[in-house]
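chain below, 77 aa
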Amino acid sequence: MDQKLKEQEALLREGFQEDARRLESEIRRLQQQSEEIQKPSWIQSALDVLADVAPFVLPGFAGKATGVVSSLVRRMF
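prediction:
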């Protein structure tokens, strides 16, 4: 993305407005994609809640096992 910003700046200095606008649009698209990738998925959010609640709701070993399994699965996502 930094390279694209440098390219855009150079094009603006040279007077290539159309190319600069095209690059600006591409930069915005890349930023949006980056933000989407960084957002946690609903699966990850659900597993977080499950891992937090399971040890308190389920008795004994079942609660601990559910917490451990959901923690392992959470790491995969």
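The first helix runs from residue 2 to 14. The chain has a mean pLDDT of 78.
thats it, cya
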